[in-house]
Amino acid sequence: KLEMPAEPTLSGDESVLTEGGVLGNVGVNSVIPEGVTYTSEKENGIYINSDLYVKGTLNLNTYVFEYSYSGNPNPIGRIIICKGGTLNINDLKNHAIEDVQILNYGGTVTVNCDLTIDPDAEFATTESLDMQDNSLTVSGGKLYVGKNLKCGSITSETGGTLIHVLGAVSTSDNVTIDGDIDMCVEGAMTVRKNNAPSVQISNTANVHIDCKLEVIDEKVNSNEALVNVTDGATLCVSYLVSRRLNVSGGEYGRVTNIYLPNQGVIDVYSLAVGTSTMTQLYGSEGNALVKADEINFDDGSHLWGDVFDTEKLYFNYSNIWCEDSQKPTDTAMHN
Question: Which bin fits 333, alpha (ψ -120 to 50), beta or left (φ > 0)?
Answer without folding.
Answer: alpha
